[in-house]
Amino acid sequence: MPVGGAHDHLDVTQHEFSCRFRQVFFDSLTDELADEPDVALGEMDVAGGVAAVAVAFPESGVLFFDVKDPSKPKFLSWYRATKCETVVIDVDCGAYVDLSKDGTVAFLSLQNISVVPGGAPDPGVRPTSETGVEVIDVRDPAAPLLTQTYPVASIGGVHTSQSKIIPEGPTDNGPRAPGEYLFSVANGFGIEVTLVNRPGGVPGLSPVNRIEMDDVHDMFVHNDRLTKRTYMYVAAGFETGFNVYDVTDPAQEELVAEWDITPDCPEDWYSHTIQPVIRKGHRYVTVDAEIFDNGKQSAGQQCGFIAGNGDKPGPLWIVDATDFTKLGPALAQGADDVEALKASSRRALVATWTNPASRPGGNLTFSPHNQQVVGNRIYLSNYHGGIYVLGARAAFRGRNVRPRELGFVLPHGPDGRPIYELNPKPASPFFSAFPPSRPRIWDVRYYKGYVLTADWHGGFYSFQFEGDRRRLQRGR
């Protein structure tokens, strides 16, 4: 993770770093994206042999790939949605894409900070109009079809969405409403819950509930085999570390836990992504913090100096959440009892990982971003810090052992597409204010023994981690 005057973050040839990884596929997408070559690729999902990669900026959309053989992805289509708002505040309007469990429906989260349109649309791209969720029929991923635009009342749109099937099960320990649901972050308001309908196979959404909360970044909805209940784990940005809700009946949610090791400092860590795992009768939660520089922290509320802790290495925490009552929430312990929440949260913390160079995150340069837990391994994207595979076997047994680096790669395919340049510059830059770098990795997905990822402007990759290759050879 080199820095300094002799290092150029934009020079791909200075970033040929890897350990126990081999690249098996790379496509710069220069030809496929020729109509808008400077689009930035964002977050992604994989299901049913289909990979969906969000187009984040300066327009929204989705790229679909056939990954039935993940060592040889095949580009299928480019679904083009709306232009981003680039006049007042430029923001990544293609915020997130989620696939249904069977891979036949894509849910594209759309956001715009202001209502000022981004100018005349390019051919095939709709002008900015609504923010919310676009429901896309991908039964034929080579010909994706918009079936509904579901508007979501919010401040600037929807940042992330996640679909989940709540199964049939016991009702003696609480209400249950089986079905397929979509949980969407309504920026500034909370989480919009909708029911996924498929009349005649055509997907659509209908409203169910609005779960109110001040700040949300991401969530993970999980069918818990310990209690046979469905819980939604919410990475709550600056608001707190994470909250846990029982959403077995999404119309009747119940807050059951909260975790935050610095509840007295609302401007330090920005809780980003989250995932629960069950290991040997215990429940653990992995949660990471996105690191950026948002100016100085407010006086009197400092757990550090920079809002977003850009002067510190970004952490990934592993928390023992087997007993929700031992986590909080603070409100159940007293309206302003932040010390009780801090103490219970610190007791529940099992282990912490930060990058091995102890490199400060900067302004979204070396920052944890998205994670995926597979067995006892954590696949973590790290912006310009690349991709890590972390071994967490000991921590998932409740031991205070830092997850260790099993493999690492900084994708460094040939430099194929230009970095966006906005002209004129927006009045208040957001997306374009982040220092550019090559590569810049938002997301990573393990699929059938391979690691898939997309670089903002570099292209689409398939890698194989040596440990996964050996696992496949053993038939595991």
* Overall geometry: globular
CATH A-level architecture: 7 Propeller
Q: How many domains, as an integer?
A: 1
- How much of the residues is beta strand, in percent? 35-45%
Structural class: mainly beta
**Average residue pLDDT:** 92
Q: State the distance separating the first and last CA atoms.
A: 33 Å
What Rg is obtained from the alpha carbons, in whole angstroms? 21 Å
CATH class: Mainly Beta
Q: What's the main sheet like?
A: 5 strands, antiparallel
Classified in CATH, the superfamily is YVTN repeat-like/Quinoprotein amine dehydrogenase
**Helix content, binned percent:** under 10%
User: Largest beta sheet: what is the strand line-up?
Assistant: 1-26-25-24-23
Total helical segments: 3
Beta-strand segment tally: 29
List the helices and strands and how they pair.
Layout: E1 18-19, E2 21-27, E3 40-47, E4 50-57, E5 59-66, E6 74-83, E7 94-99, E8 105-110, E9 132-137, E10 145-151, E11 158-166, E12 179-186, E13 190-197, E14 204-212, E15 218-223, E16 230-235, E17 242-246, E18 254-259, E19 270-279, E20 282-290, E21 316-320, H1 330-333, H2 338-348, E22 349-353, E23 371-374, E24 377-381, E25 387-391, E26 404-409, E27 441-447, E28 450-455, E29 459-465, H3 466-473
Antiparallel strand pairs: 1-26, 2-29, 3-4, 4-5, 5-6, 7-8, 8-9, 9-10, 11-12, 12-13, 13-14, 15-16, 16-17, 17-18, 19-20, 20-21, 21-22, 23-24, 24-25, 25-26, 27-28, 28-29
